[in-house]
Design a protein that fits this description.
Elements (H helix, E strand, L loop, with lengths): L7 H15 L3 E10 L8 E12 L5 E11 L11 H14 L7 E5 L9 E5 L17 H4 L2 H19 L21 H16 L5 H12 L9 E3 L8 E4 L2 E5 L6 E3 L1 H18 L11 H12 L6 H25 L18 H13 L2
Helix pairs in contact: 4-8, 5-9, 6-9, 6-10, 7-9, 9-10
Length: about 375
Amino acid sequence: MLSPDRDLDKTRLALEEWLADRMPDADGVTVSTLEVPGGTGFSNETLLFDVSYRDRDDGDESVRSLVGRLQTPEATVFPDLDVTKQARVMQAIADHSDVPVPEVLWVEEDSGVLGTPFFVMEKVEGAIPSDVPSYNEVGFVADMDAPARRKLWESAIDKMARVHQVDWRAAGLSFLDESQHGAPGLDQHLSYLRRYYEWAVGDHPFPVAERAWRWIEANRPSEEPPVGLCWGDARLSNMIFSGSECVSVLDWEMVLLGAPERDLAWWLYFDRFSAEGYGVPRLEGLPDREESIDHYEARLGRAMRDLEYYEVVAGFYFVVIMVRVGWSLRRMGLLPDADPSGEDFEYANPSGVLLETVLDERGA
């Protein structure tokens, strides 16, 4: 999403000056293209740009394709987003694991350059599964044959399992431990979710979320799986593919310390939403829920526990995120006042319908 106040021409000039300082061996640094990718999310600003320059030693001309992730000037989807934290996480993962992530080149904490903190990373070539509309409907995944889709799905799950095998302490990721909110894992995550919910909805009651929260509190597992690094927004549309091979894991703004079950449940929940939420069937060849769990367990090396619980947690989190996405859309003038039921989109959209279905299945 592009900030409504951002002037791309001024941004281009500011980037050129900033990059020239960070590329001391280059002359004639020029941002030759600058664009906002379509279909990007609401929690960060994303800029795609090519940098043209001449090597100071040999005079060779080069072009480098880069991506900028900018913190939104005001809280939109999340109240406490920090793009510099995302950059630190990606750098640590690159240095201490074989999880494929884009190379972070520079981090800028000074808001004076572009009006907000940001980081710049290498652009990874490849294709990203469609988010809106669903990859089950359009795009390169829909165009694949069934065997290729299965290979793609399994490659994606393999990379997710690698995330959960990262030794977060050895990787220097202890700063993710927000001990003021409890022990790493469910204590911290549920504390965060409750605070996030209260911030997101304010004084507007949200019955399906309250119903889910009651179930979450009443059914919390007596024992928690081992805590590790969680990607946070674990879904197919946050990966880049070359053919059927996942070549990059993207979007770390929701990173946390927790059980791998948390990420797998989020993955399964979003897979379900990508079909049911859009009213379309899943594509032939994509492994079903049980096959996906079996494949993941084989890669991680242990059985999953309490996945149905973590799926409700995922559903709760998702509907609250959609409140803030709806708020952002309304702020941009992209939503009518209310849907035919008389309720605003923020509280009446397919994410809530799916959560109602899941709660009914749980007998909540």
